[in-house]
Amino acid sequence: MQSPSSDPSGHLLPARGEKEERAYRAAAAVVDPEIPAVTIADLGILRGVEMDGDVAVARVTPTYTGCPAVLAIELAVETALREAGFEPRVERVISPAWTTDWITAVGREKLRAYGIAPPVKASNSIRALFGETEVACPRCGSLETARISEFGSTACKALYRCQSCHEPFDYFKCI
């Protein structure tokens, strides 16, 4: 049995065959078109890659069913797999629904470094559902922040302003 390895973002991978691991690495390196600082593996959108004969089958779960980036992500995964030498097939998996709980620790840190406050509560938290979340400024770390708008640069983010450093920033909402 092979020992576990890690993908391009440092996520631990289960033992798998060489072709399957190579296909997973290719798909996992695809960046989110709306947030290029994170990969689809960082966000937990990439559910897995398996070999079906000579075809690399990547399973992708959109952040929400109406996400305008889902087609771009699927096409980028197809391209990455093809460029890695595989015949690609991308399957959209909508159940179970994606949740911000699937964002990895690496992904959360990349979001913060990019200037987006990562979700701070579990998606099943009643406080998260009713907007009572304390959001730390990704630039200075202050909790003295205020929501300006329920929607930021994309529907999955809200716009906040830090009361300490006065900088606006996006907050990746709990879903």
TrEMBL record:
All residue ranges annotated as the MIP18 family-like domain in the record: 26-90
SUPFAM superfamilies: Fe-S cluster assembly (FSCA) domain-like
Ranges where the PaaD zinc beta ribbon domain occurs: 126-173
UniProt xrefs under NCBIfam families: PA_CoA_Oxy4
Protein name per its UniProtKB record: Phenylacetate-CoA oxygenase subunit PaaJ
Origin species: Nitratireductor rhodophyticola
